[in-house]
Amino acid sequence: MATLSQIEEEDNEIYAYVVLGAICIGFLLLLVQLYYANYDLVQRLHIDIPFLDKHIFSKEGMKLLLGDSYKVRNVVLFLFAFSLTSPSKGEKPTSFWRQLAGLGISVAVFHCCRFFLLIPLTAVGQSLNILGSLISAVCILSYCGRITRFYLAPDRSLNENERLADGFEQTTELIETPTSVNWKYEFSYQGKTHIGYINELAVYRASFVIGMPGTGKSHSFLDPAMKQLIAKHFSAVVYDYKDPTLSNAVYQYYVAYKREHPASTLRFGYLSYVNINHTYRCNPMKGISTSAEAVNFAITILTALNKNFVEKQGEFFTESAKSYTAIVIYALGVLFGGRYLSLPHTLTMLSQVPSVLFPVLKLISVLYPDMKTLFSPFKEAYDTNTLPQLQGQLASAQIGLGSMSDASLAYVMTEDEESRDIAVDLDTISSKESPMLLCLGSNPRLGAVLGLANAVYLTRIANLLNRKGRNPTAFFADEVVTTYINGLDNLIATARSNKIAVFLGFQDFSQMVRDYGQKISDAIVNTVNNVFVGAVKGKTAKELAESFGKKTVRKISKSITEDGKVTTSIAEHKEERITQSMIEELSQGEFVGRIADEYGKEIKCKVFHGKVIVETPEKEQRLREELENRTKNECERDGRSYLPDETPWIPKVRNWSDEEIKRRLRLNVIKINNEVSDVLLKLNEIADTYKILTHLTTGTDEFCLRHYLAEPQNPQKRINLFVWLEEAYRIVWRMGELELKDDILSFEEKFQLLLRDVYTTSYEGLQQILKAREQYHAMDLNSVKQLIDEYEDEYGTNLVNP
Length: 802
What we know:
Among the domains are: 4-153, no CATH class; 284-414; 699-799, no CATH class. The chain is of the alpha/beta class. The chain is elongated, with a radius of gyration of 43 Å.
């Protein structure tokens, strides 16, 4: 028994023969009429046919029929009209009305050709009549076939729609602005290949490129975006996960830019933990001076050490670790003018036993109220001397620190006097006077260690860039999930007002959720306006497919009744513009996506799907070869192998051998450890005095302060006050040796803070101490020493031995 589809095919084939027969009869009738009407020309050309002559000219009925050209042509058109009822093969034209107009013109010409017979020159008129009639007849059939494709041609299957990507119209116009990024690509629409342009006009509204490894994210999108924005006078920060791939490209664009603009003040910087001879040096934590900045960096460090930290914020041990890390950062920032504040110094300090650090940190917090707030979670444990509890609170801040001790990291992230000329000041990256292109290298083999270092760099850079009145800056972070940028969601949300073009690259939404947490990940993904998608799988592909909206699709359905009658119906319904399977099956270099436009520069077709075309101009290729050859020659001189994916094109800033590099890096680590040890030694001397003062304040020994406060009128108890004041003044005086940053407090103000820190028993006792100072004129260290000497002379030295 025949199936419905087989019956349909047979019916369609029979009807096609009927239509073809009608067209052939029409053409035959037209040829006979032309033979009759142009018989003079036929005879001259000796192409007359006796059989036709006999049957046409001998019968009056045939003469009457063929002699009326107008009626014959109408009959021919009627027979040709059957072609409008049968679908034809071929591409669907872009405009229905254009085809309809062509058909109308062809019909008019077809009818008007008979008037050529009125020309006095018979041969000319008849020739034009024949040619014009035949050509216009062919045009009529052609336009009829094209028109049928609009309403009779069956829709392509969904699979073919996906293969040809002909489901929606795309942009074919190149739109450039002073800040735009444009990609050329090819796409298929209605079965035909077109050249289109992805015009990203709203670069300040953030972009992300997502796709599995090998989809071409960097080559197709990030690399061209860097080239165009650098050429448009942007400063830039580039996180190069596969150092030096992107760094080499940025340096090439920098050289090209300087050749085009020799007077430009644009600079280039390169930070690499692998290529020590090429790297600059930069301390990203230099200049931190507030508790808010310290807390921000503490979150960054702890999250980079343990990605689960971001989801556990608010928990007791998590908050304790954050506060402790922030206190250490804050302390290094204020001690000795902040010159020992760096990530290597911080990690070294954090690795110290808490019992050594806490007295020091507690003492410094006396003079800095915001630091005192950070210390509050540990106050009870410190006051009660329950150090095991403190150790438990701080375990989260110390876990994993041992694996972070990398010599190259310590070298790059610190500075010294010898490296001032190659030191990078992060605050000047977006400077209008002297902007910079900064490349920040990483290495997959050292992911955890360098992830921490780069997290600190990128977090600091994001904070410094996100200000008004700066040079337009591009922020590129390829494989952004390999590090942690604290405040990335805020950078994206405010980038537009501060002229920052953020470009992020990653492989899957699940990575963002894993490393940034669900809330921050959602905030990042949902605030990015420009989306570029390569091949991804599963849930990510499904979510993206839904975000691209729907299209209207016309479908033809046919059914057969019991009596064999076939009925056809046409319906329109909505389908996803880009389906999940389409995204999952994208080839390398093939992308789908959506772009945002700007007010006054609206883009009709914002969604795209096609293969990005990356063109390398001859001039750019010559520069690339020049840089590569120069690097090869340097490697040959040094006796090294040139590895295309591992050798930077950036010029060397030092020329050390491998042994010299190891020696220098080791010496730098020793220097950092010694500096931290020296700081702790100086602080511990003062901290020991602070412990004594605390004991003299709260203790019950013979010379403790409480004995004087209990008997202030007893002359022999005054020594308790004098001894207490001597220790307090000695602390205040020695704190001047610490070169505290922003030290604006007077001696008296520092003493008042110290007094209120150690004495918390009663307000009356506090006032009693202050009045006694004035009463005995014991306002500084020298006066107190003199009072103690007088007391010893009066009562004997054997009485004073606190």
